[in-house]
Structures are given as C-alpha cells and as structure tokens.
Design a protein that fits this description.
Blueprint (H helix, E strand, L loop, with lengths): L9 H11 L14 H15 L20 H10 L13 H17 L6 E5 L2 H15 L4 E5 L5 H8 L4 E4 L9 H8 L4 E7 L11 H11 L2 E6 L13 H7 L7 E4 L12 E5 L35 H13 L7 H21 L4 E3 L7 E6 L4 H17 L5 E6 L15 E8 L5 H21 L1
Parallel strand pairs: 2-3, 2-4, 4-5, 5-6
Antiparallel strand pairs: 1-7, 6-7, 8-9, 9-11, 10-11
Helix pairs in contact: 1-3, 3-10, 4-10, 5-6, 7-8, 11-13, 12-13
Bound molecules: pyridoxal-5'-phosphate.
The site of pyridoxal-5'-phosphate has 14 residues, from helix 5.
C-alpha cells in the first residue's frame, strides 16, 4: 500500500470530542444535500487526482513538494467542521490562539521572545508583508536581493511601487558581499533581502558580512528563509552554514514557510518581525469585524483579511506532536534530508560522468552531465530528466550561468547558461533511497546516450 491510511481513524474520535463542546445547542437537523451522488463524485475526484507526480514517494526527488504530516492532515480536516477564519477573534477564537502559540514557537527557533508575527497564505505573501513594512520605514529607497533570490522579490517590489536592485552571487550561489558593499555606497538601499536557503541551489547568503554592512549603512535586513528556515534545528550543518543560521535572529524580519519544510498542507507561510511596534503600520478601521474582544485580532496585524484557521490548527497540532527543538524528532527529519543530499552529492562528485555544482548546504543537489560544451550538457540534462522520469525517478531542472561550470566554458559561440539536473531531497526517507536514486539515474544516463 502506498498511502498511509491508519491515521484516518483519528478523525471520527476527535470529531466526537469537538461535537461534545456544542452539546448544549438544540439539534440543528443539518442535512447534506446531494449525499447520494457524493460517493460517485469522490470516485471521480480520486481518478482526476491520479494525474499527478508521486510527491509522497522517495523516487519523487524533484521540486519542493511533499504531502503534509498525517497529524496536520487530520487536524486541518477536523477544523473544517468549524471552518474558522483567523482574520478576527469573532471568526476563530481557538484557532487564533493556536496561531499565536504556533508562531511564537517558530519565532523562538531564532531566539525571539518578543516579536510580531502571523501566518499567511504562503511565502510570497509573507515576503510581501515584510517588504511592505520595509518600504514604509525606508520610503523612497530600494529593496535589494541576490540574483539567486526567489523570483518574486523583484515582482513584489514592483507591486509595492518600490525600486529593486540585484546583487550578483559568488561561485556557491550566495550573495557576493563585496559586490553588495559596492552597491551600498550610493546610499539608496533601504532593505537587503538575504536568502537563507535559495530555491534553486539551497545556498545560504553570508549573514556575517551582511550584518557587518548593516552596522555601517543602516539598511533593514529581511531574511527570506521560506525554504531553509527550519534547518536552524538541524545538528549536521557545515560549520560555515551553522554560523550563518546562528545570526538569523539579528534580522529585522524573517519569513519561514510551514508549507515547505514544516510538514503542512499548502496555504501556510509565516512572517515575523523583531520589533512588535511595526504593528502600528497595519492600523486600519474595519467597521464589520472586530467586536467580540478588545484583544488583538490577527487581522489587525496582517494584510490579508480572511485566512484559514484550519491552517493554524494543523500547524499547532504538528508542533505539539513534533516540537521545534534541536535534537527532537522533527530536527532528526531535517538532518536525514541533509544527509541524503550530502550522500547523493558525494557519489555524484566521485563519478566522472557528472559535474557537481557545489556541495549542498541544505538538502538541494544540483549537477550537470559532463560534456564537451554547455549546449551539449544542457541537451543531455534534458534527455536524462526525461529518461529518469520514464524509469520512475522524478528530478527537476535548473538553468544556471555558465560561469558555475568552468570546465564547460571556452567553446566559441556556445550557450552562456547550462541546464542542470536538480533534486530537492526533502523527505527524510530519501536518506535510505539514495542508492536506488543513483541506480535509476545511472540507467537514465545510459538511456540518454542512446537517444
Ligand atoms: C526562498 C523562497 N522564497 C519564497 C518562496 C515563495 O513561496 P510560496 O511559493 O510559498 O509563495 C519560495 C518558494 O519556493 C522560496 O523557496
């Protein structure tokens, strides 16, 4: 059996407990219209959903995708019987309290006790809030992020009417601190976005040097740790990476996505501000919503209005089961992912058919097939990607500048980018599947030679 189903049994018992909380109400006589057709429609839904890559399986080692933890799935489903809305306490009392607790636990990972924060629909919205605050605190100044930062940063800046600047990256995909220092001289950068775990290569920007520059130039530092944030709990980071993680708490704002490494279903990002007084920037009047409590409503500190209380319930339950502590089971899962990446990278580096981009900092591995030119390597990557999928191994692709692969350079008139293979090993089970992944890759490489 591919899908874990034992935990389905958690729901009816929990539902009874929930329902008992409303036992004093008169029977509402609720009916489900169309019940007769539901089984048929659900069969259709299940059939439609078969048109997917197997994100749950260790042989899916492509993009940042995997199903949530069963406790998150069950808690989310349970909450939908209430369907709370965490915009206001009027819409979701319990789930708002759970959101504040769960978010405080995320903030505590970075050593923040006092903070302001809340969940969002995802990393893009969370980054938008952080840049919106930055734009208000440094009006007229630019947002700066690296070339390898998530593609949404320039777009978000455009939406907010903020100017955007890009800093180049070094040979390990990290923001080039020397280039940043030169860009800061003009004095028009209001916020630097440092990425802790870039989407493409899992690189970690040099926080030590960025903080040194902040002390000199006084910009705001936002850390986009949408993907990499939880790795702060991992005990097996390389020394340099660990040193950067230990500085995250010095940022002005941080974004972490529970729907990436936090085992949550989609619709769960998180933005945190070190200084709670930025909450004043969100001040607005809502003639419709805030009536039942003078306590802070989450809608008073977020840009979105309606938000799923169920997302907060799922996150709270997951963190209750798997606390966000070093040395715990949750941290062990992240350590397994990183170990998988280190093992895969080690094997690829030792194999003359492949060019490893650089050793992984987190759990993303990027490599290219050795070839006589960038164009030939790119064509081969594409063929291997297809051949691997035909053999049941799902990888991803990434296009990178040729300068990352000096041994492919020097062919006159050749391409200036290389299409590479990329694998996000974000399931702990990947650690036990590295050999199988390599065997399949080996077959795909041979298939691709024959094409
Ligand atoms: C570093 C980083 N920032 C932001 C995002 C965007 O997050 P979302 O897809 O949740 O909007 C991603 C998504 O992969 C990411 O990796």
């Amino acid at each position: 059996m591919q899908f874990e189903q034992e935990t389905l049994g958690l729901l009816p018992a929990a539902l009874q407990v929930l329902e008992a909380g409303f036992a004093a109400l008169p029977e509402a006589g609720l009916r489900v219209p169309g019940k007769e057709r539901m089984a048929q429609v659900m069969q259709e839904v299940a059939s439609r959903l078969r048109d997917n890559y197997p994100y749950f399986h260790p042989l899916y080692a492509g993009q940042m995708l995997k199903p949530p933890h069963p406790i998150a799935r069950a808690a989310y489903a349970l909450a939908t019987w209430i369907n709370p809305n965490n915009h206001a306490l009027d819409g979701g009392r319990a789930s708002s309290a759970m959101e504040k607790e769960a978010v405080a636990e995320i903030a505590a990972m970075f050593g923040w006790q006092a903070h302001l924060g809340h969940l969002t629909s995802g990393g893009t919205m969370a980054n938008l809030e952080a840049l919106w605050v930055a734009g208000q605190l440094h009006p007229g100044k630019k947002i700066l992020a690296s070339q390898q930062a998530h593609y949404t940063h320039p777009r978000i800046s455009g939406v907010l009417g903020l100017r955007f600047a890009e800093a180049p990256c070094d040979q390990r995909g990290r923001m080039d601190a020397q280039a940043l220092a030169e860009l800061l001289v003009a004095g028009d950068i209001g916020c630097v976005v440092a990425t802790v775990g870039t989407t493409g290569t899992g690189s970690v920007d040099p926080l030590h040097e960025i903080l040194r520059l902040r002390a000199r130039y006084g910009f705001r530092l936002h850390i986009d740790a949408a993907y990499g944030g939880y790795f702060t709990l991992a005990g097996n980071l390389a020394e340099e990476t660990r040193a950067a993680y230990d500085l995250i708490g010095q940022a002005d704002s941080i974004v972490v996505d529970p729907h990436k490494h936090g085992l949550q279903p989609y619709g769960c990002g998180c933005v945190l501000f070190r200084d709670p007084s930025v909450g004043a920037l969100y001040k607005h009047d809502s003639p419709y919503t805030y009536f039942t409590s003078s306590e802070l409503h989450l809608g008073e500190i977020s840009l979105e209005c309606s938000r799923p209380g169920a997302a907060a319930v799922a996150l709270w339950a997951t963190q209750r089961l798997l606390p966000l502590v070093r040395g715990g089971d949750f941290a062990a899962g992240l350590e397994a992912c990183r170990e998988a990446a280190v093992r895969l990278a080690g094997q690829l580096a030792a194999d003359s058919r492949w060019l490893l981009l650089f050793p992984p900092e987190l759990d993303i591995v990027v490599w290219a097939p050795r070839a006589r030119s960038a164009r030939l390597a790119s064509e081969l990557s594409q063929r291997i990607f297809r051949a691997a999928a035909a053999r049941g191994l799902h990888l991803a692709l990434i296009r990178l500048p040729l300068r990352y692969f000096p041994s492919l350079a020097g062919v006159p008139g050749d391409h200036d980018t290389v299409l590479c293979l990329r694998s996000v090993l974000m399931k702990p089970e990947h650690r036990e599947w590295v050999t199988s992944i390599l065997d399949t890759l080996d077959g795909a490489w041979r298939d691709a030679q024959g094409e």
